[in-house]
Amino acid sequence: MFIGNTRHKEGEIPTASLADIVFLLLIFFLVTTSIDIQKGIGIVLPGFEPIDVSPKMLTNVWINKEGAISVDGKITELNLLGPEIKDRLISNPKLIVSLTTTAETDYDIYIKVLDRLKQAWGNQPARISIAEPFKN
Known about the structure:
Elements: H1 18-32, E1 58-63, E2 69-71, E3 74-76, H2 78-91, E4 96-101, H3 107-120, E5 128-130
Parallel strand pairs: 1-4, 4-5
Antiparallel strand pairs: 1-2, 2-3
Helix pairs in contact: 2-3
């Protein structure tokens, strides 16, 4: 009989498979998590071949730093921009709209104008030229 220094083995939590479990959980969450992909502005970029544009085919839309919108020099409201461009498209189906802003133009109004211009074409591909911002 051994009475001296007795050893009691304490219970242990096995950690050998802990890394495997963590790795499997990581893969599970990566596979099952859905990522919300925001859609940007759908723009079809033109090819590198320049085309000749006659002044009759071009309409200029300007947005100043205060957010005022001008179509060929005539001030218009945002809600009237779409119908204005639609009317011009009826008379000229090959119309190209040149959109110019200033560097200080609010981005929100710029996107709203761009959306209205794209909606004017309906299901047809829009012909919008985004010009470099006008510098004062």
